[in-house]
User: What shape does this take?
Amino acid sequence: MDCIFCKIISGEIPAEIIHRDDEIVAFRDINPEAPVHLLIVPVKHIETITDIDTEDQNLVGRMVFVAKQLCEQEGISESGFRMVLNCREHGGQEVYHLHIHVLGGRAMRWPPG
Ligand code: DGP
Assistant: This one.
């Protein structure tokens, strides 16, 4: 499958992987928008959040839990962070393999652009 995140998961493309289990992989974003910028992705290729099935509910919950654990590991739990999930064109999604962004290490602004 011609998916950049599937290739990172399989090891075909290098990335700084900071978490891996049977269902979830996390790595640092190649173009960080903050001092800490992580991507949490499911091993299962799901294009976007609108494609999740009933059976994927626990998986998405686990993605958020892994993200929370990585925030502790990265030392940004106390200062705070932002979790972002971009969906399709208006959401600004570029890579069509479901992912949660974790951004931290600086203050974020609101509303987003
Ligand atoms: P989104 O717009 O939500 O689809 O964000 C996709 C993110 O993926 C973007 O912040 C850059 C990141 N990205 C794209 N290609 C690569 C890659 O090859 N390696 C890594 N580590 N990140 C990538």
